[in-house]
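Exercise 7. Given the components listed, write out the predicted structure of the assembled complex. Treat all entries as one system.
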Amino acid sequence: MVRPFHNDHANASPYWNPGMETMPRAQLDALHLRRIQLMIRFAYENSPFYRKLYREAGFTPDDIRSLDDFIRLVPVIDKKDLVQAQGAGAPPYGDARALPEEYNLYRFQTSGSTGTPLQIPFGYYSSAQYGEQWVYGFWAVGLRAYHTFYFAFNWGTFAGFWSAYWGVRRLGATVISGGGLDTKGRINHILQSKPDVLVATPTYALYMAEVAKGMGVDLRETTIKYFYSAGEPGPSIPTTRRAIEEAWGAKAFELYGIAEVGAIAPGCPLQGGVHLAEDWAHSLVLGEDGKPVAAGEVGENVVTSYVQHVQPIIKYRSHDLVRPRYGICDCGRTWTYYDGGVLGRTDHMIIIKGTNVYPTAVEALLGDVAGLSEHYEIHVDTEDKSDSITVKVEAARGLPSEQYEKAAQEAARLLYKSIMVRIGIKVLPPESLPRYELKAKRFFDHRPAGKGWVMREGTASAPR
Ligand SMILES: [Zn+2]
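Answer.
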């Protein structure tokens, strides 16, 4: 690879922004407080939704003098609150808006699969910073301006990869669009255009591997040496990472983003989790009692964005379950680490006889059973007031069908040993389960509504 730049000293640094990424905690917290105060004042003065919310909660921006005040006084909001505020006032952002339409550059929306879609604006500033968050992750793994990125993505409404594109532009690297092509077309395009990096969801990277096999193409022989994903849990799960790395002969990394908030947590280069980009987002990880969890405990990520100004996002329930760790990571970063990335969604939490089970934990363990593939579905039902799980998983190619039962028993034994929960396993022939091109549907909830993780109403938001 020709390196057209002479600035090798800067290119050799493992940090895109060394001062920020290794900033001591006390300084980071001082910065958070300042940015939170600015965001709260901005939202209070410009957004009818936040002004009403904060007036009802009985405080003004002047009352937020410490991070503790922020935790104590400021109410937690949910997607439905923003959707409702968008419905009041002038469309598309209604009362949730804090800047007039001429500040906006892009308009996205959530899929609406769970109700009215949430409209998502990005101004010039927010799209630039959203992209910058990706650059932290790209840079940390050695990606530079002289690399070429392939986007196996249709440039649709999925904001995640648009923001990855803004990041590649910020990095100054080359973009090759795989939009408008089918999977075979993309594989041929990769062979012909010789990119270094593949940007796709983990589900799609594995699907491409299956299609390539059918075409007689060995993806390990391509020029792709890096894989960077977002949109669903992936390379932070060791077995998923291994499957992608083996299929592509590439190192696999991920970023954890939330479309309406930002690309908040680029991957740790050591691959076991992601780091909160603390210059552009704040995170509070809250337990079911609405109080911050201790380091190493699992809770729901409640986030504040410093990049969203057209529609501010302050103390927003992400419904993502994470396990935060603080202190200095082995990679040298001081930024909060989410061990294992996103562990699951609050509405996908399974509780069996008092034990919490995360779908990603099941996925991680299945990968350790010989003879099983990475294609699976988790079905959850209610049985004797407790949840019950059945996992359908495809056998690996080449496993004789008379060995399916043995593989199922081995998987059930391993799951019991690790998470002390009995799980029914059904091993199916290869290609029995549906394939997906963006995100896989793997979790099927047959329980009555209202089960799973429930943060008790009011506990997090009630002013004291
Ligand atoms: Zn790290």
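Discussion: Confidence is low (pLDDT under 50) at residues 457-464. The two ends are 60 Å apart (CA to CA).
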